[in-house]
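Quick one, tokens below:
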């Protein structure tokens, strides 16, 4: 998210909190480390009671992106540091309820809030944004090209130092679009340049931001077909062409060792072979079908091995994002297990 957009969301949220008869003050500190983000603190008071929070601004939250956001907010807090406060443009009643159930405090620019201290409780749900917030909500976020390039770099961090043509091929984007995308990544410090050498500023924060943006944007465009699988329970035995189909989401998590029984099967590939359709007993799903589903999703990446580890799965970062996009508690727990087993070394919490 652009710094200017985050500032607008925070300013309007502060105004909305003050309308609840709260005394609100904002403090912005420089980054704790040269490569880290700037920190913003919010102090909220009512009467003699007060609470202090570390502000995390997110835009355009949806049911599919909430899991990634919660994963980021639940990173360990340094001793003595205040809890995270989620600040956003607008939360639907359903999202607000989920956040409260997860004990995640929040406030939005429309006036919805959940703040709980030892001295007071603020709980407001159901307020709708005005026209200004709607316009801000519709403004541009991560472009598809940026999502593709960032995924290529997350999948292979060493790719950041490669020539433009190599990066464009791995990300499946036009070579002419790459300089602008890399410049944007450099401006927000996702990509660092030292002595003309590029490297990815790899962290769990970057991974979670990509997962959230992927859930909101590109992921919806990858879905190409839905099928009901008559042989759903025996999916591990289905014959997959090794080069053209890879498990994602819940089945991929199971293959990677997670204790998760898939509720939806996700396959990334351009088409389903006739033999697989026969073995899986696949028929086209209708709008009312929600049981024993197989989703076919189009690969969006370019030249590079699709599976970075043993089983026939998409890269762990995409498995992680798919799991978080479901929003289901068991899937979010599996996403954390995938992170700890396959991603934590390269994308540490910090």
């Amino acid at each position: 998210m652009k710094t200017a957009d985050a500032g607008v969301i925070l300013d309007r949220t502060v105004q909305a909190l003050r309308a609840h008869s709260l005394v609100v003050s904002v403090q912005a500190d420089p980054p704790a480390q040269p490569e880290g983000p700037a920190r913003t603190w919010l102090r909220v008071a009512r009467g003699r009671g007060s609470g202090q929070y570390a502000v995390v601004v997110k835009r355009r939250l949806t049911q599919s992106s909430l899991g990634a956001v919660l994963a980021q907010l639940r990173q360990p807090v340094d001793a003595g540091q205040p809890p995270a406060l989620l600040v956003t443009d607008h939360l639907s009643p359903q999202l607000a309820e989920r956040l409260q159930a997860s004990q995640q405090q929040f406030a939005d620019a429309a006036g919805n809030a959940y703040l709980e201290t030892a001295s007071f409780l603020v709980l407001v749900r159901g307020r709708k944004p005005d026209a200004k917030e709607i316009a801000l909500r519709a403004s541009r976020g991560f472009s598809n090209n940026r999502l593709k390039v960032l995924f290529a770099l997350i999948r292979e961090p060493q790719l950041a130092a490669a020539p433009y043509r190599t990066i464009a091929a791995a990300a499946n984007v036009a070579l002419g679009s790459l300089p602008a995308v890399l410049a944007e990544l450099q401006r927000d410090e996702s990509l660092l340049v030292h002595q003309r050498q590029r490297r990815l500023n790899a962290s769990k924060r970057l991974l979670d931001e990509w997962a959230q943006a992927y859930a909101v944007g590109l992921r919806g465009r990858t879905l190409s077909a839905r099928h009901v699988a008559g042989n759903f329970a025996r999916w591990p035995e289905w014959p997959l062409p090794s080069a053209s189909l890879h498990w994602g989401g819940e089945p991929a998590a199971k293959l990677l060792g997670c204790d998760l029984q898939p509720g939806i099967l996700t396959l990334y590939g351009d088409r389903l072979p006739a033999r697989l359709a026969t073995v899986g007993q696949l028929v086209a799903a209708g709008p009312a079908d929600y049981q024993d589903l197989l989703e076919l999703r189009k690969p969006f990446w370019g030249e590079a091995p699709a599976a970075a580890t043993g089983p026939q799965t998409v890269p762990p970062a995409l498995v992680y994002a798919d799991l978080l996009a479901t929003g289901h508690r068991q899937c979010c727990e599996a996403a954390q297990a995938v992170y700890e087993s396959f991603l934590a070394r390269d994308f540490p919490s910090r």
